[in-house]
Structures are given as structure tokens and as C-alpha cells.
Amino acid sequence: MASRTDLAYTVIDGGSITTPKGFKAGGLHCGLKKTTRHDLGAIVCEVPAAAAGVYTLNQVQAAPLKVTKESVGEAGTLRAVLVNSGNANACTGAQGEEDAYRMRDDFAAQLGVTPHQVAVASTGVIGETLKMDRVSSGMAELPARLAATPDAADDFCQAILTTDLVEKSVCVALPIGGKTVHIAGAAKGSGMIHPNMATMLGFVTTDAAIGSEPLAALLRQATDVTFNMITVDGDTSTNDMLLAMASGLAGNEALSEAHPDYAAFASALIYVCEVLAKAIARDGEGATKLVEVKVRGARSDASARAIAKTVIGSSLVKSAVFGADANWGRIIAAVGRAGEPIDPETIDIRIGAIVTLEQSRPVAFDEEAALAYLKGDTVEIHVDLHVGEGEAVAWGCDLTYDYVRINAAYRT
């Protein structure tokens, strides 16, 4: 274990979505992708798990979202989630909806559970119907691939990727009422990232005993300060989904706001979501740098979040970071157009440790030092507004030539 002594939880090196008690996972290649990379995966719980989800607010929503919202809303519990990559099953009409229900129902039959205990998710190209013969063949094989092992968890993480370059996962442990509770997560995302109530695809497992309602409240809270604070390209997907499942097998007294360890669990959940969100931002299509924007001194936290996301989403700011150009003018311009209350005469800006603006007035700085800093793989931008106590952090990446190359030929 890699310990974080300043926190109430411990980060588990090598932990995965199958580390929490009761969970298995797996993945395989069924033929949806042109390569032999895995493209069908599942997480399965041995008991009905309390479930919660947050979903894209894009008004054009893929068929799997309708099916999953129905499953989660039926009883607030799930036994499994089935995920395919390589095809979003979005804008596919009645056929797409029929295919999403068929995925749910057929996989439920494979597992011997009721259909409403299965959620489905899809990611990939929009507007193409699923090759259901291949999906069905993969579903028939998948139960035998499920295991509570790191390798099986790795197979799942591979199965949900599209243009991602790396897998994204994290696991922590913490004491809850004398019991050891685990929280783990896996996610995918690289392009079409500007979440609004979700990420592209994210999955959280925990063995904590917690009901679906408090789990949903905590998931929304964590999402607001993590997944909702990242952007790669300003596009909100048709398929964004974040699901959480809690098996309850850790044996703790059920968590609620009255529980003395509720805040500790909430903090650990936020950490898991933050690690995944930052990993998505760092793995942005064509990206060479993770960019972190920290805003303080805003009128409110909500105002700080809006300003931080405006700065991190600015194509001009992102391009300047790629070019290692300490162009603070683009930063203050983004602050000013965020639509939030500010005092235009009291803004401080710092790039890393290099002060570029104080009280909205330029400060002479070492251009060579700024160039050297901006050439690193992580760039921090600090904005202090001096109008209140609100603060927020947002994450994104630089905008590169490769982003255009990747997306210019996404379907081909």
C-alpha cells in the first residue's frame, strides 16, 4: 500500500475495481473494433448492490442511457453493468433502443438475474447500429472471463477505451466504524470531454454499506468538484455516464449523514473521482500536458468553478500552453468573459511560481524561466480575484496539432 498519512484513507497500489468485496470484472474482444483491442466488458456484483448514477445533460442521449436510468431507478440496486466500446449506439433510433434492451436482457439471462439488475453503457462512433451478432457472441463468453483479480480488472479497463492512450483506475481503503471499506474506480475518456453531470464513462465500486439515496447524493457532490471540472475540447458527449455500486459486504453500519465517518467516506469518494478526472484530462486527445487552473477569491465557490472552467476551456489558453507561451492576456480575457462577478482592477495571475499580473497590472517576469516551466508535463495557472472567499480547481490539457489530426479522421 502507498500511504497518504495526511488523509483518512490509504491509496492501494495495484488496487482495482475488483478490490472491494463482492465484485468481479472482465473484458474481451468481440469484434466491434477494427483492432484486436478489447471492446466488451462487465462489472458484476455477487449481491444486489446499491446503485446511483449521473448522466449527460446533452439533450441528444444514446439509447444505453435510457436503459440504465430505467434499471437504476427501478429499485436502486444493480448486479452488473455491461459496457461496449467502438460504437456509441447513439442516434440509432428504434433499432438502437432495441439493441440496448437486448444487451441488458441477454446479459441478465447469462448471469441468472432479472433484467432491471443490469445497466448498459456504450462509447465510440455515433450514428452506427451495433453489430449485435458480435455483441451476443461476446456476451456468451464474458461470464467465464469474470474474476476478482487484477488481470480481470485490467481486461475491463481495456474494454472501455476508445482513443485513450492509457487505462484509468484507482483504489483506496479507509476505516468505517471499525471495518475496512474500499472504494475503487475506473474510467475512460480522451476526446469529446466537457462533462455536465458526468464524465464520458466512469464506474465506481465500493464494499461500504450505504443506501442508494445517500450514495447518489455523495456521487453528485463528488462529480461537481471533479468530473464536472474537467474539459478537453468543450464537447459534452451523448453517452456521458458515471455509475456507482455499493455491495455492503464490508460489514460496516450503514452510512448516512448522521454516521461519524460519513465525511471521511465522502472525502475518499471525492479523491477517487478526482484521480480519474485528472487522468482523463491528462489523456486528452493529442495532449502533451495536464493543465490545472486554481481560482480563489471569487464571490462564491460556484462562481470560482465557472471561471476556472472558462479558463481551462479556452482554446487560446490551451494553445498558448502547448506553445509554452506565458500569454497571461489570454487568461485574464477568459476570466472576464466567464459571466461571473469580478473586479477588473484586482486580479492576480501566476503561472506556476511565476507572477505575471498583480492587481490587474503586468509584472516583469523572467521569460526564459516561464518558457522552461511551460515545457513541463504539468502546468498550474493560479488566479486570485480578491472579491470573496470562493475557490475551485479545474483540469484540462493543451490543444495540439494531434488533436485535429485524431478528430479529422475519427471515423476512418
UniProtKB/TrEMBL annotation:
Subunit structure: Heterotetramer of two alpha and two beta chains.
Site label Involved in the stabilization of negative charge on the oxyanion by the formation of the oxyanion hole, positions: 123-124
One of the GO BP terms on file: ornithine biosynthetic process
Natural source organism: Paenibacillus sabuli
Compartment(s): Cytoplasm
Catalytic activity: L-glutamate + acetyl-CoA = N-acetyl-L-glutamate + CoA + H(+); N(2)-acetyl-L-ornithine + L-glutamate = N-acetyl-L-glutamate + L-ornithine
GO CC aspect terms: cytoplasm
Keyword check for Transferase: yes
Gene label: argJ
GO MF entry, a single one: L-glutamate N-acetyltransferase activity
Highest taxon in the source lineage: Bacteria
Pfam families on file: ArgJ
Protein name per Swiss-Prot or TrEMBL: Arginine biosynthesis bifunctional protein ArgJ
EC identifiers of the protein: 2.3.1.35, 2.3.1.1
